[in-house]
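haha ok so turns out i had the wrong file open the whole time. this is the CORRECT one, sorry everyone. sequence first:
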Amino acid sequence: MSLAPPPFGPEWKGWGERLVDHLNRIRSKLVFKQAGDSANEDGIILYDNTNKYPVVSIDGVYKQIVLADGHGDFVISSDYAYAAADTTYELSYTADSNNEGLPINGSRITFSETGYYLVSFSAQIFSSSASTVEFVFWPKKNGTNMTGSTIRAALHGNAETTVVSRAVIIHAIANDYLEVATACNSTNGSLKAFAANGISNEPACPATTLTIIRVHR
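then structure:
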């Protein structure tokens, strides 16, 4: 951080102009956080240059102020068919162009930054059978099933459909990746997309959506 110009000589006008110019140049800059900086007073905002984000003092500690690079919307906008029954598949979504910090490659969505993320999932399940059709969905992190995370649902009639959804918070470190896995006990089950204006003037309905937001580090 640059220092204010000190008074010099008997001419105060020039120094005053230099001081005003200096204040105009630095007034919006945060002071860098240094080792040993105290957080005893709430509301002190500093810039953590090591981790590249601003922090604020709360209850005796400095906490990150979450910036961009941690939100994404993903969608499958056409019907998704299960090629085989009782078989695990990873869903490959299309990413919104405004996503930040969550690049996607095939079925893998990578976390660019470490943090806690709110993950919201939905799927429109559909059956073309009069027999019971069962669906399961669950998240996988770095290729491993996440414990206690499965969504299970069933349809019992031909042309029956419903939406299943869940929101969870997960922790990820930089370069971890997330996948949505699914299976169905019958090839008569699918994830169904509906075109716009099917009943009234409603917009199109996607087969499945996924929204991810980084909530804090």
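The longest strand covers residues 115-127.
again sry for the mixup
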